[in-house]
Amino acid sequence: MPDSVDAKPLILDILPDYPITGQRSLLHIQQRIDLILIALEALEIGSSEFIFKIAQQLELDSLFKNPLILWRLRCTNPWRRAYTHSNTLDIDQAKALVIIASYRAKQLTMQIRQLLVAEQQMREKNLPVGTHYLLSEYLEQFRSYFRSRMNLRRTKVAWYLTQEEELNNLALSLLHQLLFCTGTAGMQRFWSSLFDGEVT
């Protein structure tokens, strides 16, 4: 008797099946999703564990049977040290990661808003955003993750690592995207936005 095939998680139907047109489009999607997850990790200690627990809570076990599989899928980001051309996301895996990120962002909405309010206040005062104690902690953690996980041979990665202000700006732009995910139909709008643009 053949082994039973895991049914497709119903929650994936929340997001439409957009076609992935070409390798560059796929690389862009993989990069954007992983960066969003890194921003979530930079918000709190132990976020990687929370991300896997959410996958279980949303009954996405058939796609992420263990944390190692989740890590391998995140390494489809072409900026990653561990990136390999043979490992790519399929449409269901990409959907699942977007759903997980959006759910976790909603749980952290208050913290995300607090950081973005702090950013606005610092900019209004013409002060470096990194000097705010809350922002400093987030930005330092993001830079640390970026530095340890990304491939220095990638031109854009090397550039970011020599331009701390630009790397901070990347981290802050990801915070804005996370807040975007928490709004009305934010998950669907973020998903749609992934299909516009190319990896650099």
* Cα end-to-end separation: 48 Å
Distinct helical segment count: 9
Strand residue content: under 5%
How many strands?
0
List the quaternary state of the chains. Answer: single chain
Account of the protein in words:
By secondary structure, the chain is mainly alpha-helical. It is 62% helix and 0% strand.
In short:
The protein is an all-alpha fold and 200 residues long.
Q: How is the secondary structure organized here?
A:
Elements: H1 23-43, H2 47-57, H3 67-74, H4 91-107, H5 109-124, H6 133-149, H7 155-162, H8 164-182, H9 186-193
Give structural attributes.
globular; 62% helix; single chain; disordered N terminus; 200 residues
